[in-house]
User: Fold this.
Amino acid sequence: MISVPVEERGEDGDGRPEVDGMRGGPEFFFLREKPAMALLAVRDLDPAYPSAVAKTIDSTVPHTLKILAEMEEQGLICSRPEGRIRRLDLTDHGRGAAGALSDLIEYLGSGPKSGSIGDLWRRLARLERAVGEAEGLPREAAELRLGPLRRDLALLMRAGEEAEVEGGEELRSAAGALDLAIRRAIGAEEKGDHER
Assistant:
């Protein structure tokens, strides 16, 4: 477990940890930029280590360790020693929170809608990695992990149509192929699910 001494973290009046002046539970934790970015960095980095997360979110390692300690206390990540450093992984709760946070960011307009075609391709590549990581999982586990990605793919294809730039059609085609791969992996075609 990532540990930060209580005197560095602080405590608010109800005994809940205070991270860098932030009081309250997880609902307030992610209203700050660095914790939100850190959660997404743990999801996107492979492998994720505290120093790599710090670099990704443009933060100091000590500040990032405080954020990660709070995330671990909230049950969003788990850490395990790997040699002299700690590897970070999202818990199921953390994966759900990261997905919701991505949806919120996209909904608020800083996702593919306002991005370039390059941003859309990067998002598609991230979805392809997630699908690759789910290979070999039992069908039920694959459904839980991959089912929500179909909505992300539909949003990405819509954003590619709206972008109306060179490469948009190729992006939509690649996203459609990935959606088909997801449907096959979760058995959606057998259930008669042919929609996007």
Notes: Confidence is low (pLDDT under 50) at residues 5-23, 110-114, 192-196. The chain has nine helices and two strands.
